[in-house]
Amino acid sequence: MSETRSDPVRLSRRGFVRFAAASAASGVLAACEQDTLVPEGPDLARGGIPGGGGGGASSRNPLYMPNTVSPSSLTLTAAPTDLDLGGGRISRVWAYNSSFPGPTLLANRGDVISGLSLQNRLSQESITHWHGMIVPQASDGHPMHAIGPGASYPYPTFSINQRATLNWYHPHPHMLAGEQVAMGLAGAFIVRDSEEAALGLPSGAYEVPLIIRDASFDKAGNMQYKPRSGGFEGNTPLVNGTRDPYLNVNRAVYRLRLLNGSNARIYRLALSDGGPFTLIGNDGGLLATAISVTEITLSPAERADLLVDLSGLASGATLMLRDLDAGWDLLEFRGTGQGSAGGITVSSLSSITPLVAPVVTREFSFDGMSKINGREYALDRIDFTVPLGQTERWIFTTRGNAPHPVHVHAAYFQVQRRTGGRGQIFPWERGWKDTVLLEDGETVEVWIRFDQHPGVFLLHCHKLEHEDMGMMSNFLVTAPAT
Ligand code: C2O
Ligand code: CU
Ligand code: CU
Asked: pTM of the entire structure?
């Protein structure tokens, strides 16, 4: 394989050291700590009070923040890279532009994205999908567009015509998505719009994208992928690619933009003091109204947009973001004592037009670990056809082997009801969604309408091992007859 590497380059900023294999030949920027999203603050590595649930404060590592870049004229290079994920040990990961997670893409509604391309420097085929972006088929990163090692894929120009939200990007080659995501290939893709801007939500250092995932390491400390048909689960949590991270925070309200970037693991997120989050958005952007919750269930590919009031966090005090299911301490907030911003009041956020009067009902049974409606995925088979502009009722059921986080490309949906199992729609499932969790015994009904692009798109389980084994379906969106 054409893996050209130079010696690790040592980069240091604000005490944060990260190693990256920078390839001069590719012109790839080495990963480095970027400071725009990290508030200034004293180093509290020794002064911190171990927080509720968070021991070992002094051994935690600064949270990594990828650079923020425009997707226009961007070349993303997927390649093996050596990085310090915290604690000084170097790990071999697969990364976009030597950054793990990859650079955070940022664009505005109305932008025209041109000159975006993928360079594949892996030893296997790949293609990058922009999860949640409503783009034409040839720019969607469908597995039919996978490219071989050494090749590059130029994404045809597309325009951004959708609400502000936190989306993300990750590989989508058939049967290889699980390995490539587990090895590190993923990044955030933030879309902004004027509706969101008018709310004056916390921004700059006070808006923090957090990609939460699990990982597994071999004896040498390199990331490894150990697929299991029930779904890969690693034994080490990573937030923004950092082991045991902490973030210095001022006395202020923070906007935490969470993405579950795991292959299969589901998180039950809560704060160590049991205090509330203000939930303001999810996969599809802002909810109609803010709602206070004390825990959130996030399955692979789901997002949650949260306001957390840290204005009461004194200098040296800590608060932990935890996963109640695994009992993991995910991210420690360390108070700097600086600032005194009062709380932000948000209630009404956005107007969400409900879909009405579906004219077609389709049922999708997620069977075993590899089938939808009894069939495994075939790259060149179209399983059903959907006309543009038609509101449809899609009903997801399972015959065992759940959880199945069900994801649809090319349109967002509205969750109408869940029967069986947990038997309710949760606050984070309101508004618009592109992924919904189907647990054993559950039937989930969503309404959906494809409004933008004709073409071949995907419905699949976002437990990546299920996806790779074939729990995926092609459908064709057709333009209305004229
Ligand atoms: Cu996030 Cu078809 O995937
Ligand atoms: Cu997607
Ligand atoms: Cu599944």
From this structure: 0.88
